[in-house]
Inverse folding.
């Protein structure tokens, strides 16, 4: 069928559920921490597109459509007819997979128009309001934006919110296009006897613009926090960060509840993750080294620094205020985890957030 095409370098998963691991030390620094053994669920293998239809191996392949062989994409141009006219495509990907292959429930920032070309796929979708019940990995974790729940064998005791999930199911056949709104979680499986080829066209959204606005503020606020804390001890930095993240909520009590929720949903279950051997032990070690609350409270921060910090706090709160509530939960969580890692380093984020549960 496609034997004239060159070899592609595809993932050869060892398990049908392919949990992605982003190797990006800037945005997902927990993925490159010394002392952690990450069990990545796939290796790489060279295979022809034609062999995907005959192999008994699991094969997973994703590539930006502009980099794939012209012979395979010629019949798909122009992409924009699969979306809307008033927003140009920001990203277009080809997805190829063998039967039973599944990607865990995850969310994206952009509009996604997903077209099935060959074979069939099953989508199980959850609204953004299910965010807390899906127990998403921390944003700085290499499995960022993906659920921690094993849907083949859900641990109800560890993840009680599983029972509250509001799922929608869709089967895509060749020629079908599914619109996935920003922030909607989707678990995707190749179903039937044949391999699948799909095309996803992503468009910028208000939500992706919100994301860019928040992360633009991260760089500015981090530069300020780093500058004023150069000659300060760790307890002083913790107090400064506590003041900052508390300001992102209506009052300290709501902040305690909100940040406690981040810890409970994202961080408190990492000890059962069998893909990251040693990570939880490092968190426990850091907890023992974390400064006691009395030392943090006794740190003195000048009025001048607090006034300047408040200007940043007001600007950031306004960005969050303009978002719809469920999207605010997602981006505020991502922001708090990221700014904490930038000021305190990645292994201190867990013990910092844990303060709000004590």
């Amino acid at each position: 069928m496609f034997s004239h095409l060159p070899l592609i370098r595809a993932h050869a998963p060892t398990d049908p559920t392919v949990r992605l691991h982003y190797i990006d030390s800037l945005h997902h620094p927990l993925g490159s921490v010394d002392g952690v053994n990450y069990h990545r669920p796939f290796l790489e293998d060279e295979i022809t597109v034609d062999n995907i239809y005959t192999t008994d191996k699991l094969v997973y392949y994703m590539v930006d459509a502009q980099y794939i062989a012209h012979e395979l994409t010629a019949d798909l141009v122009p992409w924009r007819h699969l979306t809307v006219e008033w927003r140009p495509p920001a990203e277009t990907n080809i997805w190829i997979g063998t039967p039973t292959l599944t990607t865990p429930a995850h969310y994206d920032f952009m509009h996604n128009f997903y077209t099935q070309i060959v074979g069939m796929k099953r989508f199980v979708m959850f609204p953004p309001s299910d965010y807390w019940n899906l127990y998403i990995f921390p944003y700085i974790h290499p499995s960022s934006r993906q659920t921690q729940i094993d849907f083949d064998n859900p641990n109800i005791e560890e993840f009680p919110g599983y029972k509250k999930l509001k799922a929608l199911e869709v089967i895509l056949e060749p020629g079908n296009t599914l619109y996935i709104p920003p922030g909607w979680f989707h678990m995707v499986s190749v179903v039937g006897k044949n391999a699948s080829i799909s095309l996803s066209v992503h468009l910028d959204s208000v939500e992706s613009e919100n994301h860019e606005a928040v992360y633009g503020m991260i760089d500015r606020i981090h530069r300020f926090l780093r500058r004023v804390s150069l000659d300060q001890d760790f307890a002083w930095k913790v107090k400064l960060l506590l003041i900052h993240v508390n300001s992102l909520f209506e009052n300290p009590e709501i902040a305690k509840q909100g940040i406690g929720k981040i810890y409970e949903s994202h961080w408190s279950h990492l000890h059962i993750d069998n893909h990251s051997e040693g990570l939880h032990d490092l968190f426990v070690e850091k907890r023992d080294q974390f400064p006691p609350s009395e030392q943090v409270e006794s740190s003195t921060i000048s009025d001048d620094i607090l006034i300047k910090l408040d200007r940043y706090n007001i600007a950031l709160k306004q960005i969050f205020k303009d978002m719809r509530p469920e999207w605010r939960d997602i981006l505020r969580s991502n922001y708090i985890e990221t700014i904490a890692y930038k000021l305190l380093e990645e292994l201190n984020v867990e013990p910092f957030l844990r303060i709000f549960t004590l």
